[in-house]
Design a protein that fits this description.
262 residues, alpha+beta, Jelly Rolls, six-stranded antiparallel sheet, four-stranded antiparallel sheet
């Protein structure tokens, strides 16, 4: 059955900051993409930089090593293109070279802190103007498309359109980086099982958080300036396509109404 976008998807995205598009990929696309992401995983796992083994992006930087044809078929998939035009904007663009792949960690569990995706240039904007722009979920939309079951991402619905609450600030400030980092001159280390449980507790400490529970072929479109979290474990195989649509009209609006004021 061919996926169809509905008004409910639009209400969810603009109201709570995310919507899940169930079974938007065809079995044929999944069969084509899985071996392509296996090849990408081999490249990512060569990295010796902490956590870089968990992502390869953008794939355009690896065009000499990978066959990008399956990813081109993905970004040209008509139900996908139609959904993004309806959800994000009619001029939203999907480019093969922008796609990345998120993997399971090679060695140990890991998680991020709860955070918003705000780029360094955006951090320099006037906070009020930035908050006004971010109230629109399509301001900074991201796409995760699962080729295997993926429940790695937590999200706080509605958080894209407001500042942090006091409780949310407390959870964020209580974060302990569970990886080997310098703390008063000594690295902090945890056993993998202890680290995994600490990551789970970090997720559960955030009020009103939900999990993006994706099955193979499902996609979530979400406002990445909303409060979110990632928890990954080596035993949970992951190959999730991740990228951001380009939206020329949004960029033009930012230049004219936000950047000129900075």
């Amino acid at each position: 059955m061919t996926f169809k976008i509905t008004d409910q998807h639009l209400f969810e995205f603009h109201g709570q900051g995310y919507t899940i598009l169930r079974s938007i990929l065809t079995p044929q696309l999944i069969r084509e993409l899985r071996p392509a992401t296996d090849a990408a995983r081999e490249i990512a796992y060569r990295s010796t930089v902490m956590h870089q083994d968990q992502v390869l992006r953008p794939l355009g930087d690896h065009a000499s090593e990978l066959d990008l044809t399956p990813f081109r078929h993905y970004v040209e998939h008509p139900p996908f293109v139609d959904a993004i035009h309806r959800i994000v904007g009619p001029d939203a663009e999907l480019h093969t070279e922008d796609v990345g792949v998120l993997f399971e960690p090679r060695d140990e569990p890991m998680c991020t802190n709860w955070h918003r995706d705000i780029s360094p240039p955006e951090k320099k904007w006037d906070p009020f103007l930035r908050q006004m722009a971010m109230r629109n979920a399509s301001f900074n939309s991201s796409i995760n498309c699962a080729l295997y079951a993926d429940s790695c991402i937590g999200f706080v619905p509605g958080s894209h359109s407001r500042p942090y609450t006091e409780i949310e600030k407390q959870v964020i400030d209580a974060w302990k980086d569970f990886d080997a980092v310098e703390r008063d001159g000594a690295p902090m280390r945890m056993e993998p099982a202890d680290k995994e449980m600490a990551c789970i507790e970090t997720f559960r400490a955030m009020p009103n958080a939900v999990t993006f529970a994706l099955e193979a072929g499902d996609m979530v479109v979400y406002a990445s300036n909303g409060l979110h979290f990632a928890h990954r474990a080596p035993y949970r195989k992951r190959a999730t396509l991740h990228h951001n649509p380009r939206v020329p009209s949004r960029d033009k609006w930012i230049r004219e109404h936000v950047l000129r004021e900075v």
